[in-house]
Design a protein that fits this description.
Helix content is 15%, strand content 11%.
Length: 62
Protein backbone atom coordinates (compact mmCIF):
# COMPACT_ATOMS: atom_id res chain seq x y z
CA UNK A 1 0.00 0.00 0.00
CA UNK A 2 1.05 3.56 -0.71
CA UNK A 3 2.46 5.43 2.29
CA UNK A 4 1.03 8.88 2.73
CA UNK A 5 2.86 11.75 4.36
CA UNK A 6 -0.10 13.15 6.24
CA UNK A 7 0.09 14.62 9.70
CA UNK A 8 -1.70 12.42 12.23
CA UNK A 9 -4.31 14.10 14.38
CA UNK A 10 -4.09 12.80 17.93
CA UNK A 11 -7.28 13.32 19.93
CA UNK A 12 -6.75 14.39 23.51
CA UNK A 13 -8.75 13.01 26.41
CA UNK A 14 -10.13 9.55 27.00
CA UNK A 15 -12.13 7.56 24.44
CA UNK A 16 -15.86 7.31 25.22
CA UNK A 17 -17.30 4.36 27.13
CA UNK A 18 -18.57 2.00 24.37
CA UNK A 19 -21.49 0.99 26.59
CA UNK A 20 -22.52 4.62 27.21
CA UNK A 21 -21.68 6.91 24.29
CA UNK A 22 -22.32 10.65 24.71
CA UNK A 23 -25.30 12.17 22.87
CA UNK A 24 -24.62 13.36 19.33
CA UNK A 25 -21.31 12.54 17.72
CA UNK A 26 -19.29 10.02 19.70
CA UNK A 27 -16.13 12.05 19.19
CA UNK A 28 -17.38 15.53 20.13
CA UNK A 29 -15.85 15.53 23.64
CA UNK A 30 -12.40 15.01 22.08
CA UNK A 31 -12.76 16.79 18.73
CA UNK A 32 -11.10 20.21 18.31
CA UNK A 33 -13.64 21.06 15.56
CA UNK A 34 -16.82 20.14 17.50
CA UNK A 35 -19.83 22.40 16.92
CA UNK A 36 -23.13 22.70 18.81
CA UNK A 37 -24.86 20.25 16.45
CA UNK A 38 -22.17 17.66 17.24
CA UNK A 39 -23.29 17.64 20.86
CA UNK A 40 -26.97 17.16 19.93
CA UNK A 41 -27.23 14.96 16.83
CA UNK A 42 -25.32 11.99 15.46
CA UNK A 43 -23.90 12.90 12.04
CA UNK A 44 -24.99 10.97 8.94
CA UNK A 45 -22.65 8.66 7.05
CA UNK A 46 -21.41 10.48 3.92
CA UNK A 47 -19.53 8.88 1.02
CA UNK A 48 -16.75 11.33 0.10
CA UNK A 49 -14.98 9.03 -2.38
CA UNK A 50 -15.98 5.64 -3.76
CA UNK A 51 -16.02 3.25 -0.78
CA UNK A 52 -14.66 5.97 1.55
CA UNK A 53 -17.14 7.16 4.16
CA UNK A 54 -17.05 9.70 6.98
CA UNK A 55 -19.55 10.45 9.70
CA UNK A 56 -18.95 14.11 10.51
CA UNK A 57 -21.10 17.23 10.44
CA UNK A 58 -18.25 19.13 8.75
CA UNK A 59 -18.66 16.88 5.69
CA UNK A 60 -22.45 16.59 5.93
CA UNK A 61 -22.82 20.36 5.54
CA UNK A 62 -21.03 20.38 2.16
Amino acid sequence: PEKRNRKKIILSGDPPDPTNFPPGCRFHPRCPFAMDICRREEPPLVEILPKHFVSCWLYAKR
